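Office hours follow-up: a student asked to see two folded examples consecutively, so here they are.
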Amino acid sequence: MSSPVAGGRQGPVEAVVPPARTALVTGASRGIGRAVAVGLARAGLDVALLARDADRLAEVAAEVRGLGRRAVVLAADVTDGGAVTAAVAAAETELGAIDLLVNNAGRIDTEVPLWEADPTEWWDVVETNVRGPFLLAHAVVPGMLNRGGGRVVDLNSGAGTRDTPDATAYNVSKTALFRIGGSLHEAGHARGLRTFEVAPGVVVTDMTRSMRAHTARTEWTDVADVVELVVVIARGGLDDLSGRYVRAGTDTPASLRFRGSLGELGPDTRRLRVRDWPSGRTGQNGT
């Protein structure tokens, strides 16, 4: 996939963004976040680890350091703007510029229809899953742009692409996350910013184990597939897919490159769009 993909504000020649040397991973104390943080360290990156549980983060930091990389523990709530700003500053003091941001921290609400949802829980999920990535990007992206570029990975979900009957806060939040990533791509691509919506599939985690939707599941996504995609993104191997959605367990770096070589990446491929009427005609109001 060496040629640019249409769909953003990029010109005919894309900026070349160097491979990442440092990363900040949220929700890094357990599950997918922990696996990604350790995988990035194994790939040669220094890693800032952000979550609320300092003790668990210390364990992950020890594992990162055991791989010969630097680690910094950032105990913070992603919904707290002041805490996020301070955490990013601490990470940059310890590790230098942040080249890769991985927005992994997230929650899911009770699996009930919207009219049965608890309003406080509903909004708390949106706060974590939308306000959190917004605050992290707001704090990290300006430095990336000042240095000529960087990469943002959002751990998204297929739930953000379709209608489902329950857990509506989670679904709403993942759709919103697509829009955050897409907006960053549109505004920052020409300045070297690359953004990716990575759906991890269904990995065995505390969250997925608690979900009624997965009680009978026998096939799970290997977390190593998620880590592989994020590591390749960190190295710049999927930059032509900036602004788009990829799914671990279905997409691999090789399959994505192959599809690109076939010219299958049109301007709307793997991006959130409303499909028009078959005739292509718009409504009477022109929208």
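And the second, which I mentioned at the end of office hours:
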Amino acid sequence: MSHPQGPAIRADIPHSARIWNFWMGGEDNYEVDRVVGEACLEIDPDIATMAVQSRQFLIRAVRHLAGEAGSRQFLDIGTGLPSMQNTHEVAQATAPDSKIIYVDNDPLVLTHAQALLTNTTDEGVTAYIDADFHDPEQITAHARNVLDFSQPVTVMFMGVLGHARSHDDMLRIVRTVMDAVPSGSHLVLWDGTTDSQAYVTLCEEYAKTGGVPYHPRTQAEIRAAFDGFEFVEPGFVPITEWRSDPTQVGVDRPLAAYGGVARKP
């Protein structure tokens, strides 16, 4: 499902997936990513915490969906670089027959996907699609080759929709994918918000580096992606507050990062 003839990996232009990897303590990044990542930390020290906490939110959400909610199909759009406890690892640990499709269009991500995003169980399926989320029709067309769209699908947009060119475009992307999946499917989504001026400034400065711009949005704009769906408790909240383990050491204040899980009626 990959397309090896895609664009070459650029080591001279920062990339958000590689910078995110740097903030999470990974090694799959280049000097330009580390330089920009350090500069971003100077502007907004909370960004590294957001990176780590976003993975904790993913783990809790996927564990709930594969467990209590009974989801067996996951479409993770805008995967980013493989890290600890990826979607397929969490889902297949809970439900070994889970099918997971990762979607990304960064050549470095796809290279790592080929090497690392492999089945953790004999019963499950792990695959990836080389596609841009601005073309959701292409994503759903390819996903049908692996997933059964007559059965519920969990659709995930984990901190990526700021790359949508406008709020209307963001809603179009989410709606197109969610319109293609049946009743009983779930939407899992989070993103940084404009509540933090430091985060807004970080995004503005990042755009000047030559990287693909990231557009922070208000809580209301992000929450609008869930319109028409039924929130799973506790609803639309800071990601650190979504079913967090009371014994887990959290952060001392809410991050400017909100999200939730919702069911398509």
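Two things to take away from it. The two ends are 31 Å apart (CA to CA). The CA atoms of residues 20 and 213 lie 14 Å apart.
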